[in-house]
Design a protein that fits this description.
- By secondary structure, the chain is of the alpha+beta class.
- The protein has one domain: NADH Oxidase (3-Layer(aba) Sandwich).
- It contains 9 helices and 4 strands, in the order H-H-H-E-H-H-H-E-H-E-H-E-H.
- The chain has a 4-stranded antiparallel β-sheet with strand order 1-2-4-3, sandwiched between helices.
- Helix 4 runs antiparallel to helix 8.
- The longest helix is centred in the C-terminal third of the chain and has 20 residues.
- It starts with a helix and ends in a 5-residue tail after the last helix.
Length: about 230
């Protein structure tokens, strides 16, 4: 069992060591492992236990078909936002944080800041799941209220943390929501459902330089206000 090989991973290790991996090995992930991760993640809290999350697991031929359609759409400029993830005008300190992680990522890829063709190539790797053999799509019924977005976010976090207990890594990919209609069409997702995010799931290519990127986090005293 894959889980037995990694049973020594603690909750602290799984959470504090989590990062977005952007280069994966083609090594298959068993359906048994995927089911175990999703079952464990379903213990996420949800208001009044509505459990609004709906998951699409993409592998094999379906993965290839989706990747080809996504890359073709991006190359043609055929984009349509599933929803607004970021504000139209981003203020500080969020703008600086976003720019820094972008520049740090380009550095790991060996891409100059003004090399826009190389930046585009790197961006398009999202749509091949960075080489991961499994793609996950997190959806819910579109008419749910804001609380359900919180619930689905907690479910996603559980997936990312539990994957590490099985020796796997992930990369949450909101980039798929730039081409929402493609995801809906290829995966036959009803228009009444919103695609919240994609996610790459697989075994990390530990030799890839891009996987040495660890994003910075601000200190607790910068975001926490203490009362009492």
């Amino acid at each position: 069992m894959e889980r037995a090989l990694h049973s020594g991973v603690t909750a602290i290790d799984a959470v504090s060591g989590r990062r977005s991996v952007r280069a994966f090995l083609p090594t298959p992930v068993s359906d048994e492992t995927i089911r175990a991760i999703l079952a464990g993640a379903s213990r996420a809290a949800s208001g009044t236990n509505i459990q609004p999350w709906l998951i699409h697991v993409v592998k094999g031929e379906a993965r290839e078909r989706l990747s080809q359609a996504a890359i073709a759409a991006m190359e043609a400029g055929d984009t349509a936002l599933e929803y607004a993830y970021l504000p139209e005008v981003m203020k500080e300190p969020y703008l600086s944080r976003r720019r820094k992680i972008g520049y740090d990522l380009f550095a790991k890829y060996g891409i100059a800041r003004d090399d826009y063709p190389a930046r585009k190539t790197a961006m398009l790797r999202n749509y091949s799941f960075f080489g991961a053999p499994v793609g996950l799509f997190f959806t819910m019924e579109r008419d749910n209220a804001l609380g359900a977005w919180l619930d689905c976010g907690m479910f996603m976090q559980n997936v990312m943390v539990l994957a590490r207990a099985y020796g796997l890594e992930t990369c949450p990919q909101q980039a798929w929501c730039d081409i929402g209609p493609v995801v809906h069409r290829v995966l036959d997702i009803p228009e009444g459902h919103v695609v919240l995010s994609g996610m790459a799931l697989g075994y990390e290519d530990i030799g890839a330089a891009v996987n040495s990127l660890v994003s910075e986090r601000i200190g607790v005293d910068e975001f926490a206000t203490w009362h009492g």
